[in-house]
């Protein structure tokens, strides 16, 4: 050993016990502290968690479905009254709706996160009790994507959100490819419930219709879900009408509606309540909803071809 190396060895000698201990432990580097989870909801409120929430209440069906497809179903401890998919949520406490949420029952569940609509005023009472309520807007396709991404971030499921959003896009593209040529460019009216509200062009439903090469008779400037005068629809003369089956069954009896091309030609896509619920939920099943719309369009087209001339 050279004379120059001796001072260096002496300098390291006090550290040898620590070095030997580190080697005995496998040379492991102490783990870094997990990064905090931080998001902002659509009211601008910041939510910060040191680890993903484990007790979750969802107060909107689309948020229930979002949490489920992200793989955190076992963490759900309660849902709103209208959540009915997947069937497993039937076993959970159902806790009211947007304006009549069961505040005491929700608080008793001691959730560490409540997911809700931005339009629910009842959630203010939960926040006053100290519960953390993240609220999201669900009017457009962009809203849905943004909500899925942020909910996934909150729940520690970011990788799964990428797969969910990619699946929705694939399903929308597949549905668009099946639209019958005769109905591409058709003017469509999508009725919300039994009216007088409709899905406007700027809504997530309207944007799905656009993806399906249809023309919404309710323009974007009227808002996502405007209340319409029935005369507006008569004047708009849609060539395809979509709505709840029980309402469309008697649609020709509405004043002036028998003259609408869609009614006169039988181009009506009516859906039973459970299926219709899927169509009007801005969540992870939007692609499936688009497929159901095209299924109905193909059925209508087939019936017209089969009708005697």
At the first level of CATH, what is the class of the largest domain? Alpha Beta
- Write down the Rg: 27 Å
Q: Strand portion, in percent?
A: 5-15%
The CATH H-level homologous superfamily of the largest domain: Nitrogenase molybdenum iron protein domain
SSE arrangement, N to C: HHEEEHEHEHEHHEEHEHEHHEHH
CATH second-level architecture of the largest domain:
3-Layer(aba) Sandwich
- List unreliable stretches of 5+ residues: none
Taking all residues together, what is the mean pLDDT?
91
SSE class: alpha/beta
- Label the overall shape: elongated
Largest sheet: 5 strands, mixed
Tally of helical runs: 13
CATH fold name of the largest domain: Rossmann fold
- Number of strand elements: 11
Task: Count up the domains.
Answer: 2
Question: Your description of this structure?
Answer:
The protein is an alpha/beta fold. It folds into 2 domains: 37-156, 3-Layer(aba) Sandwich (Rossmann fold); 178-304, 3-Layer(aba) Sandwich (Rossmann fold), CATH 3.40.50.1980. The chain contains 13 helices and 11 strands. The protein has helices spanning 5-12, 16-24, 61-69, 103-108, 123-128, 141-155, 158-177, 204-211, 230-236, 245-248, 261-264, 273-279, 286-306; strands spanning 37-40, 46-49, 56-58, 76-79, 113-117, 133-136, 187-192, 197-198, 215-216, 240-244, 268-271. Strands 7, 8, 9, 10 and 11 form a 5-stranded mixed beta sheet that branches. Helix 6 (141-155) crosses helix 8 and helix 7 packs parallel to helix 13 (286-306). The longest helix is centred in the last third of the chain and has 21 residues, at 286-306. The protein is elongated.
């Amino acid at each position: 050993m050279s004379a120059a190396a001796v001072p260096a060895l002496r300098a390291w000698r006090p550290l040898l016990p620590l070095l030997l201990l580190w080697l005995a432990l496998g040379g492991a580097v102490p783990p870094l502290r997990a990064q905090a989870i931080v998001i902002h909801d659509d009211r601008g409120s910041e939510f910060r968690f040191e680890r993903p929430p484990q007790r979750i209440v969802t107060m909107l069906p689309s948020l229930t479905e979002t949490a489920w497809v992200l793989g955190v179903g076992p963490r759900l401890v309660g849902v709103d009254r209208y959540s009915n998919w997947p069937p497993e949520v039937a076993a959970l406490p159902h806790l009211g709706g947007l304006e009549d949420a069961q505040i005491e029952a929700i608080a008793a569940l001691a959730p560490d996160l409540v997911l809700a609509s931005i339009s629910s005023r009842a959630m203010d009472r939960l926040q006053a009790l100290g519960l953390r309520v993240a609220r999201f807007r669900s009017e457009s396709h962009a809203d849905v994507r943004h909500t899925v991404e942020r909910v996934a971030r909150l729940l520690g499921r970011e990788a799964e959100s990428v797969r969910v959003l990619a699946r929705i896009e694939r399903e929308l593209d597949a549905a668009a490819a099946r639209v019958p040529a005769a109905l591409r460019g058709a003017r469509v009216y999508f009725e919300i419930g039994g009216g007088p509200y409709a899905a406007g062009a700027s809504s997530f439903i309207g944007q799905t219709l656009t993806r399906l090469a249809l023309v919404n008779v309710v323009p974007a400037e009227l808002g996502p879900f405007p209340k319409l005068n029935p005369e507006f629809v008569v004047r708009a003369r849609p060539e395809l009408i979509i709505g709840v089956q029980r309402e469309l069954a008697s649609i020709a009896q509405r004043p002036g509606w028998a003259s609408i091309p869609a009614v006169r030609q039988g181009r009506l896509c009516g859906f039973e309540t459970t299926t219709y619920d899927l169509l009007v939920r801005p969540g992870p099943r939007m692609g499936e909803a688009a497929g159901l719309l095209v299924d109905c369009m193909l059925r209508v087209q087939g019936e017209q071809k089969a009708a005697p001339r």
